[in-house]
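Repro case for the chain-ordering regression, as requested:
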Amino acid sequence: MRYVTHFFSVALVAVLAAFTFTTDNPASVTVQGNLVDTLCYGDAVNMDMPQAAYNDDHMVPGPDGEMMEIPNCATACANMGIPVGVNEGDAPGGQTYILVTPANQLADYMDQEVRVEGTRVFDGGIKPNTIEVKEDGEWKEVEIQLMM
Amino acid sequence: MRSPTARVPLPTLLLALLTVVAIGCQREAPEETGSPSDQPVDYAPEDTLVVTGTLLDATCHAEMETQGGDPSTCEGDYVIHGYPVGLRDDDRDTVWMLVAVPQSLVDYLTTHVRVSGVVRSRGVLVPQQIDVRDGDDWAAVL
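-- result from build under test --
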C-alpha cells in the first residue's frame, strides 16, 4: 500500500508539473480577418464609411466633395510603408490589429482574407509567426522576411 | 493507525507543495510590459485624443521587455526597416501602435512628443499631428 500511495503522489507531481509548463501564453493569438490599410481604413471608419476603405480600391472625397475611387489604394499605401492591419471578422468595423512587420512585404495580399498566428505586442499589435491567405478555399502561408 | 498522508514520503510532499506554489505564482504574476493588458481603458474607437509620451521602436521594446533586456539599447533598427512605431503614454499604462509611415519618425525615436490623433481600435492611434518640444512651446513635425 505504501508503494501505491507513493506512486500516485509522484504521478500527481508529474501532472502538476506538466500543467505548469504547458500553460498557454496569454499573449498568443490567432486572428482571422481582412488585410487592410490602417490609415485609409481608419479615416473611413472615422467618417462612418468603413466600407469605403475596406477593400483594395478606396472611395475618398474628391475636390468637389463627390466620392471618387482610388484603384489599388491599399496596395499603394502598404508599398509606401503605412502599417498593415487585420480587421478581425468578415465585415468592416472589427477590432483592428497592427501587424508588426514591414508593410511593403504584405502589399500583394491587401484585401485578402488572412489568418495570422502570433504574439500580441502591447495592446494593438500582433507580431506574426505565420500569416496565411485564403486562395481557392485553401490557406496558403505567406513568406515574409522578419528581422526577429 | 497512521493517517493516509503519513504514508507519503516527505520529499514527495514537499515537491508537490512547491509545484502547486509555482503554479499559483505563475497565474498571479503580472503580465510582461510588452504583453497586452486586459484592463479597462478610458477611450473608445473614434475618440480624438491628445497623448503625450515617448516615441519608441515598438518591436525592439516589446522584445526587450518580455525577455528581460534593456529597452534603452533599442536604436530604431526595426523602425528603419519598416516596423511600426509605438508611443509610450505618459498617463496611461500602455504603448500605442501608431498608424504612420515608420521611417518618417525615425529621427524622433526616444523623443518626448505630443500626439493628436484618433483612436482606431484598442491600442491603435492614427496621428493627425505630432509635436515636439521647442523650448516652452510645441513644434509640429508631422
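Ordering looks correct now. The domain at 25-141 of chain A is CATH 2.40.50 (OB fold (Dihydrolipoamide Acetyltransferase, E2P)).
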